[in-house]
Amino acid sequence: MSMTDPMADLLTRIRNAGMASHAKLDIPSSNAKVAVVTVLKDLGYIKNFKTINDSKQGVLRVYLKYDENQEAVIHEIKRVSTPGRRIYVGKDEIPRVKNGLGASILSTSKGVLDDAAARKAQVGGEVICTVW
Asked: Which of 35, 41, 51, 91 pairs as cysteine with 112 (C-beta 3.0–4.6 A)?
């Protein structure tokens, strides 16, 4: 059975693993997922990640990050644009999450960027998700 929204699956697995206090999680890999996880790592929401080659499409292993009270650093992660309803924004309409405390992740013509990098590069695009 094919998956309708692999990006929503990635975000749900990260959310569930954080609530269950898992140290790491494995996800079927793709270039888009690696790009989103790279942005999450650059923003400091996850510790690290690595791709593991297998005989199929590969596995993306994500190491989650927790604070000193063993609470997940990611409080909320939401899918914004879905396959049935794509959300595109211009360079002046990029949403702020929690008044700048969180981040939006966008797919732009310059690659997958967080909201601050997209504003700096003055590009808009599809809003993949929001995280804080």
From this structure: 35
Prediction pTM value:
0.92
Q: Which residues are bridge partners to 60 per DSSP? A: 27, 51
Phi first, then psi, for residue 15 (nearest 5°) are -60, -45
CA atoms within 13 A on the CB side of 78: 10
Within a 10 A sphere around the Cβ of 14, how many other Cβ atoms?
25
pLDDT range class, residue 1, cuts 50, 70, 90: very low
Number of residues that make up the chain: 132
Sequence spans of domains, the chain: 6-131
The token duo for 48 is 């690290």
Type of residue at 19: M
Cβ contact 41:48 at 8 Å: yes
* 3-state DSSP assignment of residue 18: helix
Residue 39 buriedness (CB in 10 A; 0-12 / 13-18 / 19+): buried
Measured in whole angstroms, the distance separating CA 9 from the mean position of its chain's CA atoms is 11
